[in-house]
Amino acid sequence: MNKKSPSFSFLTWLIGFTEGDGSFVLAKRGDFSLVLTQDTRDIQILNMIQKILGLGKVIKQGKSTSRFVVQDKKGLYLLATLFNNNLVTYSKKISFHKFLSALNMYNQNGNLKYPIIPLKTNDISIIKPTLNDEWLCGFTDREGCFSVSISSISNKFHICFDIAQNHIENKYILEHISNLFKVGKVSKHSSEKAYYYRIGGLKDLKKIFPYFDKYSLRSKKIKSYILWRDLHTKLEKKDHLNPTLRESLKVLASKVNNNWD
Fold first, then answer.
1. Quick one: which of 47, 100, 136, 191 has the most CB atoms within 10 Å?
2. pTM value?
């Protein structure tokens, strides 16, 4: 009770981050857990979540994967109150509804009991993010991609921002993000049952700068964004038309999504 509560901005970010790759797990043997998975090279983001919440533990699994796991009764109850009626994506809501129904029953057993958390089943698409909260920032930390490529044989270049989602039922959140920024397009992905939202072109991409400059990414993807934004500025200045500068731009572009140090 003497711990400081997590901020609204962090909790909003956490919901978006969890919707990206979080799992509400109900094992066959009856064990419950919330699991967030991340590349071990970015384990700091899981350590940050654990420290701020004061819950769960961070576990390295294999050489490349780490997980933040909450399994204790109190921790699961507290997080269930956060996610209940605050999730955005359809598939994650369905997964959580099944999880919460079982968790409510489990919480009535044993010496330590917790109140039933009311579950609304008719709010499938009511909650939506805005550009005045950090849900999209958390979602981008998991699902977003900033990319740049510079041609070796011409003056052409390609720069874009993408967010992908599996399942057609989640397509609407990509369309909602497109409406928020008033730019970009949602298209069918080459992977089966997947869709992606993409913004390309120097002019259109400038429309997302105010949001990501105001709400900073918390994972190491912030390094990708800063480098990507710097490359955007250099391309806008037409540095790519200078043969000498072009070579340095190609080197920087190769580091946008390989920037772990």
1. 136
2. 0.92
